[in-house]
Amino acid sequence: MLAWEQAQLDAAVVDLFGFHALQLGLPELDGLRSNRMPHRWLALQQAQPLPDDLVQDPARTVALHCDFDALPFDTNSLDLVVLPHALELACDPHQTLREVDRVLRPEGRVVILGLNPTSLWALRQRLGRLRGRLPGHKGEQGLFLPSSGEFIGYWRLRDWLRLLSFEVEGAHFGCYRPPGLSERWMQRHAWMEGAGERWWPVLGAVYFLVAVKRVRGMRLVGLLPQARKVAKTAAVAMHNNKEIS
């Protein structure tokens, strides 16, 4: 899954130009490595070890610790924000998305990765939670994915973006084979990747989308015909019974 997500991020951000880019969370994925913006940040909500490539080259991406729903950036200051599963793990995903909208400049882009609640992976997660509630099982030990976080559906996320005046430019689904913990299991079901893209494309375990921030304003294009007529027939100012030209 990480390999598929990294490939999607590399292809999406390589041709995005600007000066300031930000990634929220998940340092295991370097969502900005193929981007050429001079100022790049990796925001983390808590102290955690960084990947070796960031430690060896800290000038390439600056790490900072902050709350995702209160980003330390000015309004309309960033050109790109990458959210690899950040909304699912956020305390308030609505506020996090509103904060991303605030810091993005007009025509800036947001790249989002999320787990699909209508997939085999999500089904396995729900079955694991039900099994954990049965007598003799230890809580959520049988879960395949992390127990924290909330699955946010693709169409639900599109509605959130539409309310914030974002326009989705592109989206993809991936990882169609059922989850497994052995390489043999994964290779046995490798055929499902091609079949899933063709026959059930919206049932992939992961979705990926790119949206652009649109700011629609008013523009004065001239007086209306009625306003022009009123302006021509309006009385001129008088001073001492003489017209003032």
TrEMBL record:
The keyword Cytoplasm does not apply. GO terms for biological process: methylation. GO terms for molecular function: S-adenosylmethionine-dependent methyltransferase activity. Keywords: Methyltransferase, Transferase. Residues 63-112 form the Methyltransferase type domain. Pfam families: Methyltransf_11. InterPro entries: Methyltransf_11, SAM-dependent_MTases_sf. It comes from the Bacteria. This is Methyltransferase family protein.
